[in-house]
Design brief:
binds dinuclear copper ion, Helix Hairpins, Immunoglobulin-like
């Protein structure tokens, strides 16, 4: 028999879709804790799988007992005495859960202890300051090394991360590298990063901090030591010198306009401290801490009125002349 017309989803379709969604949610994406690439995240991932498989085992056991009870109850002539169940209930409902909970608690304590101290010495320190809604990054051992929303670390080395906030509470989280650590007003918290894998790892503010909490993202770039050293050295040198006439004009617009009141570009007269340091904006992974791709179109839109891209952020619309805007964009893109 052939059927025509719409094919309605069957139970099998729904189950397949459910399985796909569950697997996609668990294993995919740049922010999956189940794709651990860092020493800290591997600990929490291990604990997650331990609890997952214990839960699977308990679920299977409960279902089996339920099935057995239903099957037994249906047989004619089966009568149970009240006291029959006392032994199994005590063992399965009290003793075994207690053993499991105490064991998982012990593993949790061991992991908490391991997460408190980095593997090996931490020779590099990064200061991270949370703002609504972006991340200020300092390397205190390298004078003048300041950037925003992107921090680099050398592969295979432990990096001390000191966390404080300029306003409300935030939470620093790189799911693939380390668990969450809060940035609490009036306090400096400390954590560490360590990975043996080169790559970029997306981080995200994990504590609701206002309207643009979702666009308070950052990128951790883990790279070989030599590459890290040259990146860090460049971060404390004056910004790239303009080479073309358009870029030079853009620099003048930047320094003489409102931009310089809030932003710093190293080696120029722009020394504002309200917004992110823009000395390397041309090479960053995004603008607005993950709010938009870093390209000419979005940069122009952001300068003209960033409120349309990230409503509520601290930067007011900038009335830049239409003929100046391309030069200003070219200047920003030249800063690497
Ligand atoms: Cu900062 Cu949420």
């Amino acid at each position: 028999m052939s059927r025509s017309g719409p094919q309605w989803p069957t139970v099998r379709h729904a189950a397949a879709l459910g399985a796909v969604l569950v697997l996609a949610g668990c294993s995919g994406g740049a922010q999956s804790t189940l794709h651990a690439a860092g020493t800290g995240a591997r600990r929490t991932e291990g604990l997650w799988w331990l609890m997952f498989w214990i839960s699977v085992g308990i679920f299977a056991e409960v279902m089996a007992l339920l099935g057995w009870a239903l099957w037994r109850r249906r047989r004619p002539g089966v009568r149970t005495k009240g006291g029959d169940a006392l032994g199994p209930v005590t063992v399965l409902g009290v003793v075994i859960p207690m053993v499991i909970l105490v064991a998982v608690y012990g593993v949790g304590l061991r992991d908490l202890d391991a997460l408190a101290t980095p593997p090996g010495r931490a020779d590099i320190t990064v200061d991270v300051i949370g703002h609504r809604w972006w991340w200020e990054i300092h390397y205190p051992d390298q004078p003048g090394a300041v950037t925003a929303n992107e921090l680099h670390i050398p592969v295979g080395e432990s990096v001390r991360v000191r966390l404080r906030t300029a306003d409300v509470n935030h939470s620093f989280w790189v799911p693939q590298l380390m668990p969450k650590v809060d940035l609490i007003a009036g306090k400096t918290n400390q954590t560490w990063l360590h990975t043996d894998q080169a790559g970029t790892f997306r981080g995200q503010c994990a504590e609701y901090c206002g309207q643009q909490h979702a666009f308070m993202a950052f990128m951790v770039v883990a790279e070989p030591r030599a590459q890290f050293d040259s990146w860090l050295a460049a971060l404390s040198r004056p910004a790239t010198t303009p080479l073309t006439a358009a870029v030079q004009r853009g620099k003048t617009v930047f320094e003489q306009g409102a931009c310089a009141a809030c932003h710093t570009v190293r080696g120029t007269s722009a020394q504002g401290r309200v917004g992110p340091d823009l000395s390397t904006i041309g090479s960053r992974w995004s603008i607005g801490a993950g709010a938009a791709p870093n390209d000419a179109g979005h940069l122009g839109g952001w300068i003209a009125n960033s409120q349309t891209i990230k409503p509520g952020n601290a930067m007011p619309p900038q009335p830049v002349d239409a003929q100046d805007l391309p030069d200003l964009i070219a200047y920003l893109q030249s800063l690497k």
